[in-house]
């Protein structure tokens, strides 16, 4: 007699190739080294892929909880002004990107009271293509970067929450509140491993003629990507450089990583 279960199948030994893929998988959320059955994906990674795709689609269509976000922003100790783009619905926003770049005419009345004094920078928050992103990351990022700027005596405009906005909506907002710089915090297009990635688009003296080549971007802001402290450091660095050199976009290179490494290595 034997204690072995005759119905059990022998476990295949782990090959050197599988060990290599397992090691690589520890360093990335990308889908690499996925199990296959013949020419097709195995059931587990296939279902995981479909779930990720569903989450990405949900992120695009999800509505922003404005009341909750405004409550989260109270810790920033700045007024919050809510305005809308010309896209009056989510469906319209997705089908007509141009409307998301334009302020609704009623927005001017909301912004006018804040145009009395010139500002160094205005922060604009919009759900973009992922409400999850700004809902989760806008307040923590602002909580990290605003103290840096306040310590340097920056004149900061009220926070502007722009419904259904694209990046370029920040140009008109900066003009309306007389801000030299605009930083647009916006939900990025969801990926299959990042439905909640937020970007910050920074522009020096935007005008109606401003193009994407005139902007700098800090992308993939989330705990699994660029953390809040690192993103705040980059944001403050870029804003300083833009104000000092009066340029942005392709003319300005982000050297904040080199600066931070140098500061960490300084024996003092």
Lay out the secondary structure.
Elements: H1 16-25, E1 36-37, E2 40-41, H2 43-61, H3 66-72, E3 80-84, H4 90-95, H5 97-100, H6 107-111, E4 119-126, H7 131-151, E5 159-163, H8 169-176, E6 179-187, E7 198-204, E8 215-221, H9 228-245, H10 256-265
Parallel strand pairs: 3-5, 4-5, 4-6
Antiparallel strand pairs: 1-2, 6-7, 7-8
Helix pairs in contact: 7-9
Rg, rounded, reads 23 Å
Shape: globular
CATH homologous superfamily caption: Ethanolamine ammonia-lyase light chain (EutC)
Straight-line N-to-C gap: 74 Å
Q: Tell me roughly what share of residues is in helical segments.
A: 40-55%
Mean pLDDT: 89
How many distinct beta strands?
8
CATH-level-2 architecture:
3-Layer(aba) Sandwich
- Order of helical and strand elements: HEEHHEHHHEHEHEEEHH
Query: How many domains is the backbone divided into?
Result: 1
Based on secondary structure, the structural category is alpha/beta
Strand content: 15-25%
Question: How is the CATH topology named?
Answer: Rossmann fold
Strand arrangement, largest sheet? Answer: 3-5-4-6-7-8
Low-confidence spans: none
CATH class value? Alpha Beta
Major β-sheet, in short?
Answer: 6 strands, mixed
Number of helices: 10
